[in-house]
Amino acid sequence: MAFLQDSDYKPVITTDDLDTIMQSDSSIRTSAEDMAKEQMIGYLSGLYDTDAIFAEAGQYSDTRNKMIVMCMVDIAVYHMHSQLPEKMGLEVRRTRYEDALKWLKAVANGDISPDLPAADPEPDTTNWGSETRQKYDW
Question: Which of 19, 108, 121, 131 has CA atoms 20 to 30 A from the CA of 7?
Answer without folding.
Answer: 108
